[in-house]
Amino acid sequence: MYIADVLIEHPVNPLDRPFSYLCELPISKGIRVKVPFAAQSLVGYVESVAETTLSEEELEEENGYPLKWISEIIDEKPLLNSELMQVADYLSKITLSPKISCLSVMLPVQFKPSSKNGVGKKYERYVQAVDRDDLKLTPKQKACHDYLRELRRPIRLKEVPYSAAILKKLAEMKAVDILDVEVYRNHYLDIKEKEGWPQLTLPQQKAVEGITNELKHKVCLLYGVTGSGKTEVYLQAARKVLSQQKTVMMLVPEIALTPMMVTRFKERFGPAVAVLHSRLSQGEKYDEYRRILKHEVKIVVGARSAIFAPLENIGLIIMDEEHDQSYKQDSAPRYHTRDIARFRAEYHRCPLVLASATPSIETYARAKKGTYELFELKKRINNQPMPNVTIVDMAKEVSAKNYSLFSRTMRQRLQECIDQHHQAILLLNRRGYSNYLQCKDCGHVVKCPHCDVTLTYHKDEHVMKCHYCDYTTAPVTTCPNCHSRAIYPVGYGTQKVEEMIQKEFRNAKVIRMDVDTTRKKGAHEHLLKAFEKQEANILLGTQMIAKGLDFANVTFVGVLNADQTLNLPDFRANERTFQLLCQVSGRSGRGENMGNVVIQTYNPDHYAIQSASQHNYLAFYQKEIQYRYYGNYPPYCRMVSLEIRGKDEIIVKDRSQQIAVYLKNNATHATVLGPAPSLIYRMNDYYRYRILIKYKNGEGLINALNTIHQHYNRERKEKVTVMIDFNPYTQI
Ligand code: ADP
Ligand code: ZN
Ligand code: ZN
Questions:
Q1: Which of 52, 378, 493, 654 is in the most buried spot, having the most CB atoms within 10 Å?
Q2: Is any ligand 1 atom within 6 A of the Cβ of residue 3?
Q3: Residue 14 has pLDDT above 70, yes or no
Q4: Which segments of 277-413 are extended strands (E)?
């Protein structure tokens, strides 16, 4: 008899420890089983198995209760290979998350421990003739049978030019065989393969050489301005790695960017490429995942969770736009893709390439120190000039009595661009119609009843929405405070700007791209295709349009409000502003015509805005690294943030203070800041406090955090929970 330790994903409670079950046979670790649990039958994941010589009675005596039996074995083989099992352990360790929740993010939904989902393999019916002459067939049946015989191969049932009734009869007589053949769901089928490879420029050659000359473990930074040919470096490095019978993992930060990268890889490598991102249908994901398991794939292109793909024999991992914050998962387990990538690259002893036009401060600092190998592409391909950037001081517009969202310069340049039949990209980092509705008489602002934030008016759907909890309600027509009817939308969102452009510019045709217009599957691709085909001359959107896009006809980029990211209460606010401005500027002038950029701001002298306008990363880096040094921020320290949340305001405050005291007493090397109320103090009816910890050496700290995690989250001893986030990227 054997005892299996099984991890269980419970729909309500996080059960962060294995439970013991009995089984007759020595099942393998890593498979899923069904087990009885508190009067339910749940799916669990076998973590370990050990033989026992004790009887059931003796085990009961030892445990104090009778052990139950595993009721069903689901998988024949372990779902994760031994490397990915180690990744799961590592993930659990660095995020202090239950192993079961780590497995859940690592596996596609059909393989998740709790999955009861019906998506499976997809089959198509094929038909093949049986070589027989002993049958009495009608002329029509004979014609059909002859047709299939001559083909000498199975053909899709749908393609047979004879009726279903005839085929049915033939099948009954055993004159044909009907076969179910597995087909893969794949919506990238129409990408044509390209012949030939462009001649690399010298800096590109150096990068490809340097990265691939020896496939040992190292971390490289490929720092290249936008349009400098980084993607071509990925492609040719991948080709070299493939020629050595190894595989490649290509990560991109966002779904919006995936189509372009997928196209470029599929053009070169055809069906050897698998694509993984959250916007695929479950069937597509399942198929791609199994194609990887069956070694039919040499390259995986995908967003964050693709880092967990069961690719074997990896020879190269590339992270495009390595600075991008969407590489950080913002729900548990809160991992940074870079950490997992480094772990896997070390395991496979292969290079990890971090690439960006605006590397994160931490990464560039490491490259400068020599910890990472640095490769640079300083110029655009064909020495194309960088766009010409104009900073507009919005305070001066106001003094000149221009109260519009469009400065005079912006207005003029945008119209010129349209008149020349070029295309423009406009960035406004706020979706919806207006920021909020406000009463002109008493100043009352309409807020979410569950959160401490204003409700955003969405004109499209004619509703007010909370962007934090999704609370949605009909727009008020009278002031809830003074009953005045003078309730007006204040501020600008993408919907309102779209409306303004249509009204105020000649021949303007706008495509709007934001969370609201891209909810549907395939919507990103669809909108970008339409813009590429020049069905519109203005692409207006939130930050999702800032990156990766390569449209030759775009000669103007306008940033409507550069201060939005600058004013975020986050030590990375300068960095994010600089990155965003560089990225979005880089969309302009990628074709034959010179590009122009206009940035509107109330902080025209800020170094993030100044250095972005000069395309000067190093100038920005030098200022920013000083700020990090004097403020003691990463890379000079590490950070972890705690969010203490609960429904009882007094208890939340009290426990937050206790936790801070406990940390100060037990993590003596760390600096403990707070507790302070979170930026949005109440969210979704939960009160929230925040503690920020800066540290260099995590020794005492990690133990203390584990104790806190055990007490509040595992054992649920209090009416609050503590969210622990290492290397935090959000501070709301
Ligand atoms: P990045 O990824 O750095 O923004 P890309 O790789 O997209 O730059 O390159 C910008 C443009 O230059 C693309 O249209 C690409 O096809 C082209 N390109 C890149 N490398 C070369 C090369 N060696 N010769 C000719 N064209 C190139
Ligand atoms: Zn009012
Ligand atoms: Zn809300």
A1: 493
A2: no
A3: no
A4: 299-302, 314-319, 351-356, 373-377, 388-393
Cβ-based neighbour number of residue 127 at 10 Å: 22
Q: Cα of 485 to ligand 2 centre, how many Å?
A: 8
- Are 302 and 318 in contact by the 8 Å Cβ rule? The answer is no
Q: How confident is the model at residue 255 (pLDDT cuts 50, 70, 90)?
A: low
Q: What is the pLDDT of residues 207-234, one digit of tens each?
A: 999 999 988 999 999 999 888 899 999 9
CA dist 143 and 131 (Å) reads: 14
Strand pairing class (40-51; 2-8) = antiparallel
DSSP H stretches of helix in 223-322: 230-243, 258-269, 282-293
Ligand 1 neighbourhood includes 114 CB (under 6 angstroms): no
Q: Which CATH number fits domain 2-111: 3.40.1440.60, 3.40.50.1110, 3.30.70.1400, 3.50.50.60?
A: 3.40.1440.60
Find tokens 């909810």 and name the residue.
519
Task: For ligand 3, an ion, list residues with CB under 5 A.
Answer: 448, 450-451, 466, 468-469, 471
Q: For residue 248, give both structure tokens.
A: 């490649």
Cβ-based burial of 401 (10 A; exposed 0-12, middle 13-18, buried ≥19)? exposed
Give the residue from 351, 273, 364 showing the smallest Cα distance to 322. Answer: 364
**Closest to 570 in 3D by CA, of 634, 630, 620:** 634
Residue with tokens 């709301």: 732
375 bridge partner residues: 222
In this predicted model, what pLDDT tens digit does every residue of 258-294 receive, in sequence order?
Answer: 677 888 999 999 889 999 887 777 888 888 888 998 8
Note the CATH number of domain 638-726.
3.30.70.600
pTM score of the predicted model = 0.84
Instruction: Please report, for residues 231, 248, 368, 487, 635, the alpha-carbon distance to residue 228 in angstroms, rounded to integers and kept in the order given.
Output: 9, 22, 21, 50, 27
Task: Answer for the pair 305, 276: CB distance below 8 angstroms, yes or no.
Answer: yes
Best CATH choice for the domain 202-382 from the list 3.40.50.300, 3.90.650.10, 3.40.50.11810, 2.170.120.12: 3.40.50.300
CA distances to 402, 537, 582, 591 from 417, in Å: 22, 9, 20, 14
Nearest ligand to the CA of 229 is: 1
**Separation CA 391–CA 394 (nearest Å):** 9
Considering the four listed CATH numbers 1.10.10.10, 3.40.640.10, 3.60.10.10, 3.40.50.300, the one that applies to the domain covering 385-431+493-628 is: 3.40.50.300
- For a ligand 1 pocket test, name from 199, 221, 232 the mutation site with the most ligand atoms within 8 angstroms of its C-beta: 232
The CB of 230 under 6 Å from ligand 1? The reply is: yes
State the pLDDT at residue 120: 63
Residue 94: the pLDDT is 93
List, in sequence order, every beta strand (DSSP E) within 267-422: 273-276, 299-302, 314-319, 351-356, 373-377, 388-393
| 236 Cβ closer than 6 Å to some ligand 1 atom | no
Calpha distance 329→543 (Å, rounded)? 18
Q: Which of 228, 235, 242, 237 is nearest to 208 (CA)?
A: 237
